[in-house]
Amino acid sequence: MDKAFDNKEKSPRIIMVTGGQRSGKSVFAENMALDKSSHPTYLATARVFDEEMRRRVKIHQDRRSTRWRNIEAPLSIEGLKFSPNEIVLVDCLTLWATNWLFEKNENTDEAFSALKRQIDLLKESGVIFIIVTNEIGLGGVSPNALQRKFADLQGMINQYVSSIADEVYMMVSGIPVKIKG
Fold this sequence. Notes:
Blueprint: H1 3-6, E1 14-19, H2 25-36, E2 41-44, H3 51-63, E3 69-72, E4 87-91, H4 93-103, H5 108-125, E5 128-132, H6 145-164, E6 167-172, E7 175-180
Parallel strand pairs: 1-5, 1-6, 2-3, 2-4, 4-5
Antiparallel strand pairs: 6-7
Helix pairs in contact: 4-5, 4-6, 5-6
């Protein structure tokens, strides 16, 4: 039986893990998922376009054991079936946002609406989900218009997820700092 079902206290339904690149977000989130379930689900959002990205994905895959149910969903999760109280780790919101931004021809409002719908579908499904995202808005304003659009989209979706999250953690140099919940 999963630990989430044995726990008498109410488990958080939505947990957000944010931080900078290579701050330890994924490892922290994976360990959290494994603490909550003996067989969590990994919802991978990456699209692999080159060898460098293939290596990054492989690092994540190699860390996970056969205990994980793996689903690749770079865009829509409509049609996916989840069990009530299933633990789903979404890694990562940043890549998901990138996919939707290009799917919607760089229209940030349409990309935000589509991505928000995916988050709402997860929320409505009854799963407990841990969502990994990047905090990209700390480095100043880019001179590149597409990068500014993406930073705006990422900021909007991060704010939305954190507003509905029960717990939010920010990873700083491998150290989780609880900022909500």
